[in-house]
Design goal:
It contains 10 helices and 6 strands. The chain is α+β, with helices and mostly antiparallel strands. Among the domains are: 147 residues, no CATH class; 61 residues, no CATH class. Strands 1-4-5 form a 3-stranded antiparallel β-sheet, with helices on one face. A 3-stranded mixed β-sheet has the order 3-2-6, with helices on one face. β2 and β3 form a beta hairpin. The longest helix has 29 residues. It is globular, with a radius of gyration of 21 Å.
Length: 307
């Protein structure tokens, strides 16, 4: 991988999106963190797209371990999305109707879980616990590495790749505390030290696929550890926040929190003080719904939190 590819991955890790209204990468990169785990992105075996103009759902079933079928299915859905995006312009020209453009579905997605920062407040009731911790990296080379390596190997080599890049562009200089790369470098060094890993003994993921042994449990076939605790099977949706998919905004919110690894942090300040149990009244207030609705969707999608 070249430096520009690694920089693009770093931007995705900090949530930067190209566009006039997005924050500068410089400010976001100060919050860059290592990853703790990696998982498959296509394990739901289904990709979907709801076309608001035609009021129709398009979908394709896929198999996460069948690359030809997976890519063909995504290509079909992305073709429908491209057609819809072109229709948006036509509809506006005809009647002034405004529809949102929709991004295509990732062709090379890998889910990663960010590590918790060792430089910020780790209080369970702090806002940091509701920060999105599961992100998707869309990069063909990274995806192909995730087809070969298990999560442990992938994470070590991925973090080494980012760390080497940070050291390279810092020029090996002693940085000031306010420097953009000061915190990220400390976070990565601490990640390796706290894991008891000599960073110099780990190969960078950027060194290439040659000689990389294939695991029988590669990242792309690995599920998030608490998947079995969640009573729902979600497909990959091109426009996941559209109301078409949900019976209510509350359900949409809960599912979004689950999929982004934020649900535990979200409910942490809704617990009874002396009992490890959710106070439904507090939760319903936070979700802006009735007690009955909050309990219903928690039982439906994350019942383990009510045990």
């Amino acid at each position: 991988m070249n430096d520009s590819d690694i920089y693009a991955i770093i931007k995705s890790l900090v949530g930067h999106k190209d566009g006039a209204l997005s924050r500068s990468p410089r400010g976001l990169i100060k919050q860059l963190l290592p990853i703790d785990a990696a998982f498959g992105y296509y394990l739901s075996n289904k990709v979907e797209f709801y076309d608001p103009i035609q009021d129709e759902v398009f979908y394709r079933n896929i198999k996460y371990d069948n690359e030809k079928l997976r890519l063909e299915s995504i290509e079909y859905i992305n073709g429908r999305i491209d057609y819809y995006n072109r229709l948006c312009d036509d509809e506006y020209a005809k009647s002034g109707a405004i529809y949102d453009y929709i991004d295509p579905i990732y062709s090379w997605g890998v889910k990663v879980k960010l590590s918790q920062s060792m430089l910020t407040d780790t209080n369970p009731n702090s806002n940091s616990n509701t920060k999105e911790t599961i992100l998707v990296i869309n990069n063909e080379y990274i995806y192909k590495c995730a087809l070969k390596l298990d999560s442990e190997q992938f994470v070590e080599r991925f973090n080494k790749m980012i760390y080497v890049y940070l050291i390279k562009i810092s020029g090996g200089k002693k940085l000031l505390v306010d420097n953009t790369l000061y915190n990220p470098i400390i976070e990565y060094e601490d990640w390796f030290m706290s894991a008891g890993i000599d960073v110099h003994e780990i190969k960078s993921l950027a060194e290439g696929l040659r000689g990389m042994k294939s695991s029988d449990k590669p990242v792309n076939y690995t599920r998030i550890s608490n998947t079995k605790k969640i009573n729902a099977s979600y497909s990959i949706r091109a426009n996941p926040n559209h109301q078409k998919w949900y019976t209510s905004k509350v359900e949409s919110k809960i599912i979004s929190l689950i999929e982004n690894g934020m649900i535990d942090g979200f409910v942490s300040d809704c617990m009874f003080k002396n009992v490890n149990k959710i106070n439904i009244k507090k939760l319903s207030h936070k979700l802006n719904c009735s007690d009955k609705t909050a309990k219903k969707f928690m039982q439906q999608h994350a019942p383990y939190l009510l045990d």
